[in-house]
UniProtKB/TrEMBL annotation:
Positions of transmembrane segments: none
Name of the featured protein: Aminoadipate-semialdehyde dehydrogenase
Gene Ontology biological process terms in this record: amino acid activation for nonribosomal peptide biosynthetic process; lipid metabolic process
Organism in which the protein naturally occurs: Iconisemion striatum
Pfam families: AMP-binding, Beta-prop_ACSF4
Amino acid sequence: ILQSDAAYVPLDPEAPGFIAAEVMSQCGLKYCAVTNGLVQQFQASLTKYITMEICGELPKFRVTLIQIEPRPVAETEQVRAQSADVPEHKGLAYVLHTSGTTGAPKTVRVPHKCILPNIVDLRSLFQINADDVVFLASPLTFDPSVVDIFLALSSGAQLLIVPTVMKKIPNRLARLLFKDHRTTVLQVTPTLLMRFGHRILKQDVLSSGSSVRVLALGGEACPSPALLSTWRHEDNKTCIFNIYGITEVSCWACCYKIPESLLLSINLAPWSPSDGHSRGEGEGQVFIGGEDRVCLLDGEDTAVPGTMRATGDWVNAKGDQLYYLGRRDRIIKRNGKRLNLDSLQQLILSLPQVQACAVGLYEGLRLLAFVVSSAAGDQMAASTFPSGSAQLGADATSLILKQLSLLLPSHSIPDTLVLVPELSLTPHGKVDMDALMRTYRRQRDFRFSQPDDLKQTLLTLWQEALGLPGNVNIDEQSNFLFAGGDSLKVLRLREDILTYMGVSSLNLLEVILDGTFSDVLQHLTQLLPAEESSASTFESKKHPAGPLSGIHGKRAHKSIETEQEEKPDVKVVRRASEVMEVNTRKADRTENLQVLGGKDLSRPISMSLSQSWSSDTGRCVDATPVILLRANQRSDVPKATVFIGSHSHRVQALDLVTGNLLWERVLGDRIEASAAVSRCGSLIVVGCYDGCVYFLCSDSGETQWLFKTGDAVKSSPAVDPVSGLVVVGSHDGHVYALNPQLQLCVWKHHCGGGAVFSSPHLQATHRRLYAASLGGHLLCLDLDSGHVMWSYCRDTPFFSSPNFFCGHVVIGSVDGNICCFSDTGELLWQFLTEGPVFSSPCFVPEQQKLLCGSHDGRLYCLNCSDGSLVWTFQTTGKVYSTPCVFDGFAAGRRGVLVGVASTDGTIWILDARDGQIVTSHTLPGEVFSSLVVWDNTLVIGCRNDYVYCLNLKSQLKDI
């Protein structure tokens, strides 16, 4: 291909069809060489987006040549419109694309003159010769693979390629690399290297007689020299390099050989830029580029010499050296103090009990440390089926937390330590933080207390891994491989089991390979900690949104559990899938198997909505309900209360289960704003047309405090889970920060003109507040002082409420646009609908999507990163309400669901993946309220004066 002056682009066969089609369209791809075994899969995944014609076969290489042509844009909304004349560029070597998991795939067109110097320089620096064995660690879609391939080919060296599945089995991979093939050049990510564990690293990879001459670590932050030294035998002669670069300037930009003396110290290894020098002193972001090494991104058609690309990496410049500090988004403020997540990760890695670690923020607030313990990672079995490791895990967790409490200030200590059998990897070998967050969510949502539950769950996972329907019986003496499994299916089953159980087991893979269903069940039973069976039923209740988005109250960390006076567990469920937890004693536990009642999830399921109860409020209900859940001392079932206001001036407190009226208050005027619950759970906060903000006792409805603003309050309050401040907007144009405990206004700020109708949104971790006005102003304020951090103004009002996720602030505008801003106030993108947008956005974090309705009658699902359309759903009315995202598990359906109401009174339940309708239900009146979901219960207000509670149920279809 290269000799013919053509460029090549590798496509990931596991990527979704629309991503591959997008890349093909951007590249102007004309031909695809497809392995014969993947032709059917290729055609099935792409036939919707492209037309294809088989134009030849190469039997010698077992490859089929397929000519492709994009379908007309009108036939599909998944592939964005591209110019028919894709610019041709001479001198291109290859085209790569990003994964598309955080946005539309981005193509990078790499000229020969950009990558060739890399290969030549590294070949000289690493002194590659014909005797070397170079391990191809990266997939072809990751540019370090280009370096590996051509380092070997240009030197006459051997290139070692192993099946992808082998990279997931560290013991077998180590045997292949260091014993069978004596690998000499190893270019890997630190995470992939750490998967080997301390024992293999010291005995094989970096032993005294190791075959590895060159170890190049790149793609992630390099481990500290102190940590590297613990992996090496004292007589090891391997040269260790820290290499750095970005795909946008393919491939590597810096290479630093770590000297022996530095490996014996505790200082961080500096960078030594190979294409220039640092300019000045101090901290800043790294930019990479040069006169010749310029790649073309996406629609760029001209290589501009000297182009510099932002990396997003922060460094400390000292003279001509750069010291890596971390990713910009990995340096956060926590409790008002700066915290570098990468530095915290390195410190945890330095503990002797830790083999591997990854630190991240769950939903932007909860600090999690995912840890592979040394004891679990290096545990060697004395028998074929060893005993469980529950006590081992509990001991390791306690010891690690105790050590961290001695080494770190309180704001740096993780809220939760999550023990995992191994760190999840992306296809490029980096830490897959999204997968780890899903692991945390599943560990929190799945706990096994009864052997029958465990057996049923193992049966379901076993059937799913084998692709068997749920009604197929599994013989307890059957072996997984003999039942139709293969190596990939074995790995999937192992990962599913360990993910759901939240334990480590080095030998589970061998038990699955060599044992029976009964052996696997016995092995898993031994892994279960005894205290699991005593988990609180309240803690086992399902979060309404999985929790797919929400705000979790700050909890004080304690390294060693001590007995303390029990405080009531409180959860608050609001619109847009927001869940706030306060005063909780331990992480939530959920037992979905009990919720499901043993339903066979492999069979088709139909869903339906039915009315549970309704309550007459006396006038229209435009407000959105709020649900307060508190632990019930007399029962395992939490006490759940719905609070709702009405244009009849009344506020009602209703039992969520029965709909019985608990109390009712009549306030000074109409109530359109949704209520909030104070941090302590004892106060209901609601605004009123009389200009007052009422603080009512949640148990009785009695007024505890009343704060008067200058005009009607139609804005819904936001509650800071850290300080307890209540922030609310008023039609007088101000936002107010109120302290209900001291009963005073801490600060107020005028929002630049126009009433504040929309609800403020606070981001507790970074102490920021976002507010918008009908004057078209969007402001970011310091949550503690009210000072303006940035502002934005457009000519049309904001009725929509802002929302925040992963550095993106999104809001709808009356001019029909859904607007996305960076956390510095820069307009990143806007998506134009065909009607005014009064609906407020809601996020699907795990899928990097956002949802927002429009008065054109549609619900839009957009990609967070670039605003591209993922799917749209046409309702039968206008969409004023805010969509709600929740997990369908509690209702007996796997996957994420979306609930939204149209103004004609129809409640729609959709599949979040593609917007397909799951079920619907029509109320006898218009709806301007938004859904709130808890478990399989939905609550919403209606303009026929009633508030309704609906149940979402499932039943198995006949097959």
